[in-house]
Amino acid sequence: MPGEAARLWGWLRGSAEGTRKFLTVKLDGRTHALHVRPEDEAKVRAAIGAYARLWNIINELTECELSDLKREARERRRARRRRAS
User: What is the C-alpha separation between 60 and 3, in angstroms, rounded?
Assistant: First the structure.
């Protein structure tokens, strides 16, 4: 899925800064640049924002999963200690 997500959402990464706007994207180890026309700037900025929100959600889910794994490991250690005593 990460490769698929990169292909689907990869173009959304980048920035639109300066007088001439460019969107830079790194896909499959290569950096691509695309000129952003003034009439497309709002759409590109919205897409970049959506991509950032998507990654925030993914990071929050990862934190939850990591927390669950740590809790399960603690519970297994406690259970082993109880059986050993």
Answer: 20
- Which residue carries 């173009």 as its tokens? 11
Contact 26, 13 (CB under 8 A): yes
In Å, what is the CA distance from 65 to each residue of 55, 58, 72, 77, 78? 15, 11, 11, 19, 20
Span 25-77, pLDDT tens digits? 888 999 999 999 989 999 999 998 998 999 999 999 999 999 999 999 999 99
Locus of tokens 């990591």: 66
Can you give the residue ranges of every domain in the chain?
Answer: 2-84
Residue 48 sits at φ, ψ, to 5 deg, of -65, -40
d(CA 62, CA 58): 6
